[in-house]
Fold this protein.
Amino acid sequence: MKAPEAIQEIQPPDNTKGPRAWVKDNLFNTWYNALLTCVAFVFLFFVLKGFLTWTFTEAEWKVIPANLQLFAIGSYTRDQVWRIWTVLYILGVLIGLSAGLWGGLVYRFALALSGIWLIFALLPFELATRGWFLGAIATIALPFFIGRGRTGLRRWILAGWLLSFPVIMVVLRGFGENGVLTSNWGGLLLTLILAVVGIVVSFPLGVFLALCRQSDLPAIRWVSTTYIETVRGVPLITILFMGNVLIPIFMPGLDINQVLRMMFAITFFSGAYMAENVRGGLQAIPRGQIEAAQAVGLNYVKTTRFIVLPQALRSVIPTIVGQFIALFKDTSLVSIIGLIDLLGVAKSVIANPDWLGLQAEVYLFAAVIYFVFCYSMSYGSQEIEANLGVGLHQNL
Amino acid sequence: MEHNTPTTVSEKIPFWRDVRVLRVLFQVVFLFGVILLLAILYRNMLAGLRGLGLTLNLNFLQNEAGFDISEGIPYEPSDTYLKAFWVGILNTLKVSVIGIVCATLLGLLFGIARLSSNWLIRTIAAIYVECFRNVPLLLQILFWYTAVVAQLPRVRESISLFDGAFINNRGIYLPAPEPTSGLKIWLWFLGAGLILAVILYIVRWRKLEQLDRPGFRAKWALPAFLIVAFCGWFLTPGSPFTLDFPVLQGFNFTGGFSFSPEFSALLIGLSMYTGAFIAEVVRSGIQAVVKGQREAARAVGLKEGQMLRLVVLPQAVPIIVPPLTSQYLNLAKNSSLAVAIGFPELVHVGSTMMNQTGQAIPVFAMVMVSYLIMSLTTSAAMNWYNRRINWLNR
């Protein structure tokens, strides 16, 4: 038999591949796009030129390294900083174990975090600090190899995550006068704590309120709806002001400092939004699920516990991440009340006579930190959404 | 076989297992708990206030406010607190309405730009959206206020645009139209133009109905109105408006139309931030219209503009409107951040009143109720609109 002829490879015609064709297709495909491209180029040129000139010649960036510790932890007692490292290590162990057990997104997150710690360890900080950072990488890496493949541990790790929240709070606070008073918490640390407390504590509150609002008992429904709509109808800053003034009046005799008051106020605020998010998940559950549960004889509590909530909560995870991002940004309002969170630190650095006139530098730096956190979280949320397979049906 | 047939339940269900009784009982207990909690809080509050030497009433509203408010409707420090509060409400409404207009324009522009086939435009829009969405609004407002507006040149070295508009660190000054005696005559022209436009609109509408063809109903009415208005402008003896230019007098500009630095910073911050969110709303709304709809529209021979107007937008608008309204509400609520830079809106006036009178609870209750009224009326209007749209689409 004759061997089949070598098939001649046909080259794609010119102008469909390569940078030139790309430019033609994406920048100059019509006359108005060509015009727009030119205008945009001129605009970009001037903006970038101005920005880069300012960044590299006029801006005085030494204000940032000089106040880096302040940005990170505010006025947290300096000789107690080991507490923060302990917390980072606890989280590192949990992240490492989870990365080993689940892989996927958690694995990539652990990798990124280790990368960030490595970069920090290479920066010219004090030697001790760099050592702590290297240790942080180890606390992620070792548990990762321990946990890899041991799927039996999953249940325990989840319990560990739940338990980690109170443990971390206790570690950060310490006991009595020897610890760090919550009024000394500050900087990025405070911003993160406020946001995490706001989400974690408001979660049960939100689920409860959402179930109440869906209830077929009118009195319960009305009370819950009134709470949710009132809180959602007013700005956060008014709730913070109210919390600041009212909590000491409502609970006389208890000495509740400003940080705790803001935690209460933020949780109170966040609970209403959480309730609406959870309600979205509850409403998405097909009626048949509940009817089926009733048909097999489950009562209200069992239906909710085994049928409704597992499905509803799973589908609202991306929304809750979105709420966390919003809350993370909104915690900056506590700086109006007078707390020294990340934005509060920025304001106090600007007010410092040593660094007069450096508003743009300081605010830009704070903005970059907020951006990095929010952007990476919203990226993560999209990944979660894709992994859970929720939110995919809309575009079909 | 007769045995085992369940006898009808003759005895009554005991009341502690009767669902109807339990429901009522449960609600009563729940309400009782809520009321008890509120009562305890209220009692504590009264005791706490007594400790501070305050009583809970609104009489202080009639007292003289004694503080100045830098902008808004005419107001003197000798006016009452109630008047001061009203100035705050109007300032909130002013910045919210102007902010909503600016944010919508920005959002539409960038939302459509994100769908552009031009890579550069698409990318610039994406960078705008991501940068402004992911940074706290308060930080942005402070940045605009302290790092941009306050760094503008001083009054003597104002940036001047065409010698009519001036920008300096005391504010933005624009020429303002001043009505003259000619305005009355021109208004007659406008009225006549409007009547003509309405007639043409109806005629065109009827015609389109007859032909049973889609078309732009205001195609005749709009140009007709513009032509009448335009001709009227020239036929009016003396022009209906003159421009009142800002003039440098003493240490500052007077005349014209001016924005204070606080207002400008707040407006820029609110518009840029909310604009980024609106851009996402617009983009996702347009993308939610299935691709097949466009292809079908092209297949039946609609032009690009007709496709947008008759196929894409009618389906995208109902998707866009609900999240758009919630963005508007967010903008109105976020205008309260002006308290950080001292623009005298509701919360700022409220906190001044609180500091002066010590009546924190009534003052902030009033502030919250004002916001609630704004929010609830807007969402009621929104629900009505949604129902209407859904009804039309059915």
Residues 19-52 of chain B form the longest helix (34 residues). Strands of chain B lie at 159-161, 165-168, 171-174, 176-179, 241-244, 247-249, 252-254, 257-259. Chain B touches chain A through 59 residues (CB under 8 Å). The mean pLDDT of chain B is 83.
